[in-house]
Amino acid sequence: MTATQEHKLDEVKIGGLGASRRRVEDNRFIRGKGNYIDDVVLPGMLHMEILRSPLAHARIKSIDTSAAYAIPGVRLVLTGDLMATRNLAWMPTLSYDTQAVLATDKVRFQGQEVACVIADDPYIAKDGCDAIRVEYEPLPVIVNPTQALAAGAPIIRDDKENQPDNTCFTWEVGDQEATDRAFAEADVVSKLQLHYPRSHPSPLECCGSIADFDRATQKLTVYMTTQAPHIIRAAVALIAELPEHMIRVISPDLGGGFGNKVPAYPGYVMSILASILTERPVKWIEDRTGNLISTGFARDVYLDGEMALRKDGKILGVRMHTESDHGAFFADAQPSKFKIGLMHSAFAAYDIPAAHLSARGVYTNKAPGGVAYRCSFRVTEAMFFQERMVQAAADDLGMDQAEFRRVNFVRDDDFPHRTPFGFLTDSGQYAKCLDVGLEAIGYDDFRRQQAEARKRGRLLGIGISTMTEPLGAGNSREYDILGIKMFDSAELRVHMTGKALLRTGAKTQGQGHETTWAQIVAHELGIPAEDIVVEEGDTDTAPFGMGTYASRSTPVAGAAVAMVSRKIRAKARKLAAHLLEVSEEDVEWELGRFYVRSNPAQGVSIQECAMAAYSNMPDGMEPGLEGNAYYDPPNLTWPFACYIATVEVDPVTGVWDVLRFVAVDDCGVRINPMVVEGQIMGGLTEAYAMANMQFITFDADGNCIGSNFMDYLLPTAWETPGWELHEVVTPCPHHPIGAKGIGECATVGGPAAFVNAVLNAIGSSQVRNIDMPLLPDRVYDAIVRQQDVSGAPPVKQGD
Amino acid sequence: MTSLFDEITAAEPDDAVPVRRVTITVNGQRRTADIEPRLLLAHLLRQGLRLTGTHTGCDTTNCGACTVLVDGQPVKSCTMLAVQADGHEVTTVEGLGTPSELDPVQEGFKEEHGLQCGFCTPGMLLASKALLAENPDPTEDEVRFALSGNLCRCTGYQNIVKAVLWAAKKQRGES
Questions:
Q1: Interface pTM, i.e. ipTM
Q2: Segments making up each domain of chain A, as ranges
Q3: Over the stretch A238-270, which tens digit does the pLDDT of each residue have?
Q4: Which of A280, A323, A342, A635 is most buried, by CB atoms within 10 Å?
Q5: B98 to chain A: nearest residue by CA?
Q6: Do A37-139+206-253+261-294 and A3-34+488-631 have the same topology in CATH?
Q7: Contact list, A72 vs chain B (CB under 8 Å)
Q8: Which residues of A are catalytic?
Q9: Which residue, B37, B69, B95, sits at the end of a domain?
Q10: Residue B109 at interface with chain A, using a CB cutoff of 8 Å
Q11: Which range marks the domain in which residue B31 is found?
């Protein structure tokens, strides 16, 4: 045994890269000792409840708050007029729009905030809301893009100058002329139209805030359910005109986020003003109905496209158009250069010479929509359309669905690959992932079984979906929110005994950063993960970062953790040379230890270097062993996945069951395989939910159908299928530890597998599409009528 | 804003609010409180007794984050009035295990990665505890059915099911 082998640390044993380390945060959660927003109690705290509009579009004629003030324990009632005296009736959104904090002129969606009551306890505050009298004058209601864009439609955003209609934005990307040429040369043109329905992320914990303004120090502390505390601090500084250094945003334990906790919500702003006025802490905890009808919706996009094909199966070009329903305010956070998010990541896994995408966003009388619900800015819609379109094209050509994908995939030796929309995909083994999936599901066997079953009247189906998505926004050249570049950060302090404190600009909501970030440090420095504590979410202590959403934490903040560890290691090397009395060039590194190249037995541990940094540093060296790193990624990371579902459809009822589901994910190097698999299974369940049951619709009057969990169906343990997971590893070539994003892949790529499987089971060329969710009545309709079934929301008679 | 502040202090607390005295055994301790009859059990536990492990996620008895045991039976405390618990025994997540030793269900959830954000976890733990008290050797389907009143948005349930089966095995002394 050589000297270095003798000293060698077992990386898995110290909780480094690749260890399925049990989670640190679990220790408090399983004991009921988490610290979520509603668990925070401050001395003298008051409670706030919000009164919401019952109407989707109406002019406010009057608001009478006198009866609310007459209730003992009511301390303050805020209305739009009062907010306006502080210039706070409106606030900027994260997408260069404005949003009403409390309505002044009119309400623009059902559930919009009209007033709020601050009282001694939440029950009294609710009584106060009930006592407020509001007189409305109803206005015509618009619930979909067709109505919004019709001639003579009422203008929802009449508060804005230069807003002649209900168009929110238009945007395009790609090469129109090249795409036109591709279509002119095509043997076959395949077309598809569909609606990706409105859905709500619904983390199990609703939103909330506790504002605490201290008049003596002029410091504002706000506890807030936010996935991006630093962006919120900047926004509060701008909105409330408070100096940024006097604002402290603390995001405590979050009961899930999924994009719902990215935007800045009116309730946050109200609680801040209420605290300033009452000089007491004011707590606002949203109820579930408030959460479902007013905060961050997702999807609600009409996708219309076509694919130019050669007879032999080669894709020549793609055209796409999207109409997205943003509700009354464009309040979701999108990188400012990309109005329809990263919709143009569609077809990135396929080698397609030409493509063009046009997009139009519209305002409607619905709650603000378009948040990235467990996806990287609209990639869910992009990948869903991609895999539905690919399926339709394969069917039109009469080609096997797997083979059609295989012949059009970007090849393993063709990376980096420029997509027709301009992205640069970094790496992947697409065909291999597909093969692993086909092998696992037993593709050929299933096709035989399917044919046999069909003879007996049983409808079995198999659906494939593959996806790649750009994760880890971003690089600062292209990605910013409100002009703030989308880098991220980490700060590491190694104490003298070799224990460490790590802080990042990200914010965990269940992803397990407290566990996995420590594993990156363990990998880089050889400090056991259990010796490292991880903190996030407090803007007074954490370095500036853009937060956690769009699967960006591992690609960006995780990279920063690796980079700051390397800075620490570089300084530790100097300390080691000093301790070993050799020159720095003669010092070699192995996990957790420096040694003398010519005599490997002579070495010092990272812990000994840490001690020396505080007790025995060389002359002239700055004491201490700490540092920070800001990481601006050179590119996004591009994970890949292949999802395959088999289903059986009951032709009598339209009910379908999942027989098996195979997932093959390639997210590069896995920091903690257990956590990665947890992310995939959670994501698949949300994919299944959207395919099967989970959507929120609106009636023609703009009433939200799905304002509670009795009407908005979320899958339970009973319906949810079992998941069979497989992996392929293609390390990311530009990430310091080779990792790619993973948190959202399954939600993004999963839905099309289910829909393709059900359509495959129906097996009719007359049924090319059923809009999600695939409710039994829709499936039954498709079978009986032999036609597509649209899920587009209703249009009022006479409109 | 000074005129506003005058206005808001005008109303004084009302002595006429009805109050009822209740005595509830919570996690083995007798607790007595004077409460408004409309107070929900979840709120008494959280705000009154500062047992904040019991969460509320939906207000409509759907999500189960507020599940506690009342006389050993799982109950959603967000739609039970605190006065209805008068004279009964309530177990919350804080009553599971001891300071030095976890309950097998707690251990199982950690061991099998049965939680992510942790918000549903207390309710899941208590629903699991009730299942295992009745059925110490459940099948996967029995676990899934027993937990079908509890929503989780993070895990996809598969690891929760494994966690409960892990706990069952441990409780039977097989691991």
A1: 0.97
A2: 3-34+488-631, 37-139+206-253+261-294, 376-473+635-785
A3: 777 789 999 999 999 999 999 999 999 999 999
A4: A342
A5: A31
A6: no
A7: 11-14
A8: 227, 374-375, 744
A9: B95
A10: yes
A11: 20-95
Domain covering A37-139+206-253+261-294: architecture: Alpha-Beta Complex (3.90)
Could you tell me the pTM of the whole model? 0.96
Q: Spell out which residues of chain B touch residue A30, defining contact as CB-CB under 8 Å.
A: 93, 102, 106, 109-110, 115, 118, 121, 125
If you count residue pairs, one on A and one on B, with CB atoms under 8 Å apart, how many are there? 196
Quick one: angle between helices A776-785 and A745-762, nearest 10? 40
The tokens describing A692, both together, are: 């099967």
Listed in sequence order, the DSSP H helices in A442-537 are 443-455, 513-525
Residues 6+ apart with CB under 8 A from A43: A281
CB contact under 8 A, A204 and B153: yes
The pLDDT tens digits for A609-620 are 999 999 999 999
Q: Which token pair is A343?
A: 């919709």
**CATH code reported for the domain at A3-34+488-631:** 3.30.365.10
Q: Are residues B29 and B90 in the same domain?
A: yes
Q: How many Cβ atoms sit within 10 Å of the Cβ of residue B21?
A: 10
Q: Domain A376-473+635-785 class?
A: alpha beta
Cβ separation B53–A33 shorter than 8 A: yes
Instruction: Say whether both B41 and B71 belong to one domain.
Output: yes
Instruction: Report if residue B128 sits inside a domain.
Output: yes
Give the start-end residues of each E strand in A495-561.
500-504, 532-535
Please, are residues A18 and A673 in contact by the beta-carbon 8 Å criterion?
Answer: yes
The reply to whether B109 falls in a domain is yes
Number of neighbours of residue A599 by Cβ within 10 angstroms: 12
Binary contact (A511, B116; C-beta < 8 A)? yes
> Each residue of A512-542: pLDDT tens digit?
999 999 999 999 999 999 999 999 999 999 9
Indicate the residue type of A98: T
CATH code assigned at B52: 3.10.20.30
Other CB atoms within 10 Å distance of the CB of residue B160: 30
Out of B49, B68, B95, a domain closes at B95
Residues A736 and A675: beta-carbon distance below 8 Å: no
Clarify whether residues B87 and B41 are in a common domain.
yes
Measured between beta carbons, which residues in chain B are less than 8 angstroms from residue A714?
151, 153
Q: Which distant-in-sequence residues (6+ apart) come within 8 Å of A559 by Cβ?
A: A488, A631, A633, A735, A736, A737
Burial class (CB in 10 A: 0-12, 13-18, 19+), A597: exposed
Q: What is the mean pLDDT of residues A156-162?
A: 96
CATH classification at residue B139:
1.10.150.120
- Is B116 in CB contact (< 8 Å) with chain A? yes
Chain B residues whose beta carbon lies within 8 Å of the beta carbon of residue A255: 55, 57, 117-119
Q: Is B118 found in the same domain as B73? A: no
Kindly identify which residue of chain A lies nearest to residue B120, measuring between CA atoms.
Answer: A204
- Let me know whether B90 and B111 are in one domain: no
**Considering its fold, how many domains does chain B have in total?**
2
- pLDDT tens digits for B64-87? 999 999 999 999 999 999 999 999
- Cβ of residue A440 closer than 8 Å to a chain B Cβ: no
* H helix intervals, chain B: 2-8, 41-43, 104-111, 121-134, 140-146, 158-171
Q: Identify the DSSP state of A711.
A: T
Judge if B51 and B79 occupy the same domain: yes
